[in-house]
Each structure stands twice: as C-alpha cells, then as structure tokens.
Amino acid sequence: MTEHRSDIYGVMGEFLTPEEILHAATKAREAGYKYISAYTPFPVEGLAHAIGFPRTGVPLLTFIGGLGGALTGFGLQYWCSAITYPLNIGGRPLNSWPAFIPVTFELTILGAATFAVIGMLALNLLPQPYHPVFNVERFSHASTDRFFLCIESRDPKFQLADTARFLQTVRAHHVHEVSNAE
Amino acid sequence: MSSMQPPEDFPEIRRLDPVLEPGHTYASVTDKIAAVVLTRPPSTGWIVGFALSFGLVMVLFVSLAWLIIKGVGIWGINIPIGWGFAIVNFVWWIGIGHAGTLISAILFLLNQKWRTSINRFAEAMTLFAVSCAGIFPLIHTGRPWMAYYMMPYPSTMGIWPQFRSPLIWDVFAVSTYATVSLLFWFIGLLPDLATLRDRAKNRVQQVIYGILSMGWRGSAHHWHRYQSAYLLLAGLATPLVLSVHTVVSFDFAVAIVPGWHTTIFPPYFVAGAIYSGFAMVLTLAIPLRKAYGLEDFITMRHLDNMAKVMLATGLIVAYGYAIEFFMAYYSGNKFDVFLATQRIHGPYSHFYFALILCNILTPQLLWFEKMRRNVAVLFVMSLVVNVGMWLERFVIVVISLTRDFMPSAWGRYSATFWDYSTFVGTIGLFVMLIFLFVRVLPAIAIAEMRELVAHQSESDEERS
C-alpha cells in the first residue's frame, strides 16, 4: 500500500461489447482483485459471477413475503369470522376455510411481490442518488452503449498507476480515474 | 432466434419476420425510443388527440359529479337489473388489462423474445385499464365515500367484511392486481428511467428522471438481483392474472341466477379477457408504431403473433358459448333452457347476434395470413373484437337479470344518457393516460431492446 489517496474511489475501464467486459472482469479476478464492480447498459450473462457475486437474497425475501402474506390473509379471515365476530348461520362451520382461499391467495401474491421489489431495491441500496461513479463524465454512456469495469481503491491490490495499466492490458478503450469528491 | 431460421439457400422455406429489423446498435435503439420522450416536440396529431380525450375526461367528471349529487337513480338500473352498465364496464375494462400481464409475465416465462417491444405499453395499458375498471364498482356502491367499508379495518361497530362473498374476494383480487402490475411496470422502467436521466438535456427532465430512477447505475450486482426479482415477479403475476378474472367470474358463477351458475365461467372469462386485451394492444400498437416510426421495433411479426393469439383465445371463447348452450340442454334445468332460448329469441337477441358476429364470425378471417398481415384489417378487427367483448358482458349481465326464475321478477333494462357518458368518459380517461404515457415515459423497454441487439449480433457472428 504505497499510495492510498482517499479522494480516489477507483479506476474505471471503458469497453464496447459485453464480451470485452466479461473477458476483462475474468482477468481482473485472476489478477487477484477483489473489489470489482461492473456497469452495463443491460444485464450481461455471467458478469456478476465473473466479479464474484454468486447468490442473491431476493428469492429468500420473496418467500418470506409470500409466507407472511399467506399467514396474514388466512389469519385475518379466521380471526374475523371465527373469533372476534362469529356469526352462526344455520350451524355452518365458522372456520369455513375453502371460502378463505381466494383472499389468502391474493395476499400471498401481494406479500411476495412487494417483498421481491422492495427487497431488490433495499439489497441494492437504492434509492441512492449520489455515487462516485457518476463523477466520471463518460459514465452517462453506461446507460446507453458502453460497459465499464471499476476496480475500487479499497482493494488491497489497488495502486493507481498499476491498476490503470492493468486495465489497459485487458484492452480497455479508455481508462478513467473515479474521484470521491464532487 | 435467427439460428433457428432455415439457411439462406432454401428460399422456398418461409423465413420468419425479425423481431427487430437488422442493422440496429445499442445507441440507435436507445436514441430512437428515448427521442420520442426527450427531444421530439408534440405533433399536431398528439395535441388534437390529447385535447379530444381530455374533453372526454371532463365528460367523465361531470357524469361522476352528477351521480354523486343525484345518486344511482340517474342510471338505467332498476329492480331486478341492479348491475347494468357499471358491472358490464367493470368486467370489460379489467379484462382488457389482462393482456398486458400476459405479455409481460407469461410470455417472459416462456422465453418469447418477441414480447420485448410490446411489453412496456401493454403493461401501461393494464394499469390504465385497471384504473378505469376500479371506478365502476366504487361508484356502483351508490355511496363511494363509504367504499372503505369493503376493507377489513377495526371499526367501533366491531363488524368485518363478509369474507365468504366473491364480492370481497374481488376487492382483494383487483387491488392486488393493480399493486402488482404497478410494481412490475415500475421495476421494468427503472433502467430506462436511468437512461432518460443520463440523456436528458434540460434540468427539469434530469431532476425528475433522476428522482424516479432512484440512482440506478446498471451495476452488475444490481442487475443480478434485478433479474432475480423480475423473474420472481413474472412467476407471481402469472397465477395472479388467472386468479383475477376467475374471481371476477365468481361474482357471477357463485350466484344461482340462470346463465351465471356454471363452472365454465372461470376459464372462459380468462380466455375472453386475454382476447379483448390483445385486441386492445393491437388497437394501441398500430397507431403508435405508425405515429412514432417504430416499425423497426414493432414489426409484422408482432402483429401477426398477436393476431394468432386473438384467433386462439377467440376460439376458446366460442367454445364457451357453445358449452353454455349444451349445458343448458344437457342439464334439463328448465330455467337454464329458457334463458338459452331467451338469448336467441328474447328482447335482447340483437345484442346476442351482434356478439356472435363480432366475437366469433369476423375473427375467423384471421386464419388467412393475408388478413393477419394487413394492418388496416387488423386495426378494424381489433375494434370489432373490443365491441364484441363488451357485448358479451352486456348479454351475460342483462339477459340473465331480466329473465330470472319468476315471471313476476322479469324486467327490462335500457341505459340512460348518464350510463353512456360515464362509459365514454372512462374511454377518454384511458386514451388520455395513454397519450400522456407515450410522451413522458419510453413506450418500449429500451434496456431489453439493447439485450435483443446483443443477442442478434451474437447470432450474426455464429452464422458468418
């Protein structure tokens, strides 16, 4: 760690195609970098895996949301119809569970869907209006037609000049310094 | 996609039209779709269309205000026909919404690439149609300010909604459907809002799209979770969309009224919903691609496929009509038999024959490829099917209620001016929302189009 400047977030290489960035990301991992992030205009298959991100928590959260919705839905109807306001209609059972299925089902879906979306946003730490990568002027192309690979300065192997040179060896078309300051 | 195409040297094998015309790059699809929102000034056609639909929204407001002042007596409903236009329109609108979810969720799960350029505005159509649908049961209660009675809330009276009633199931089904459709639409929009933020030239646009895009930056980690959430939502929306129209059909099928009390209703309602929904997608897609020059993205392949879905669902609906007659005959129930004959011979038989003409006979033209590839024919056909599906709901609601068990309970129904003005008003609201939508949000999913470009260039490389 000869040079560590706190005003530098990392260095960023710019690529033209999904294949290029996938190649560069794989090489960066092989070179021992750990804190790598990639920014692409559309999901690139295998890229998350290449920079070391094998699993997501979204499915688990969705399951929890669905389970919660189901229990709320059935619990609500059972409590209303059988406990707090029981109505004896010709001796029919108070817990008439088949009639409770539609609402239980709808609330299961509602819970799961809400958790899937809010969970995805929360795990992604969104909304997050400011991020250092936005300081790079060319970064506005990340939402159109350019692919960016960023090696972050908190990486133990990070050295401004070396890392920038490394990105050039993996055929980055441009290399940008990402500063922390606005 | 194109790797499944027959090789070039077999010209006699017909090649499928592309889902995306060749020669596009990431930047060109982005430019073309984003330009509609960001740079193009509104055309005269847009202004005229918006003004007209805005006028109809004013008609809606007047109708609703008069309704709230005077009560539901301004409508044609009476005893025994308590449902009338409000429920006919509710079922019609909610059905239209279903195609949007089908395109965005079911075709996504089936990996149908052609859905990409039509899913965004089909989802918007779903939301707007559900908004229009939601108005009707609300105002049909007569006292819409008491509508919160339908929700389970702890009241001082200690009473709760009747959870064994399909009408309460409907409240839950429709509100869940509206919420999930909105979530699905919003997360689909997220990357595109970021694109608009990055390309916006003026400050106002930058700030608005900036806030809406939540700081999306297309990180690979984000995309990974995003795709997972999107796939799960598609998986959740699929059973949901089937359940919504099933529950709507329960409103009828659980009752004992002749013509309603039948088990064919859930599947045939769902098929009818998809039928009318695809008709509405065509009604919107054909002028949209023309007005904004999006023929490269919404190609003949899309129109052809949608026409085929219409033909298939139309046949399911036709089967439903046939089975209704068969079951009336086979059950031997004299009330059901009587109702069936009333459809053909009763005072509303012209509605029934118009329905058969619109929903069953006309769409048979779609068997012919020439017809499916004629944009003008398709457009007219989509309007005809929309009318037909409205007639179907009218036939179901009105004929059954006017021909109950006892002759003393028979009646007649005719809609009043306010019935028509409210209905036309909601059409105005729907069209106005569509007009606003195409100006402020990308009508085609840009990020998904870029993905399509990537796939296309991959398969081009394989071939060369």
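Chain B has 15 helices and no strands.
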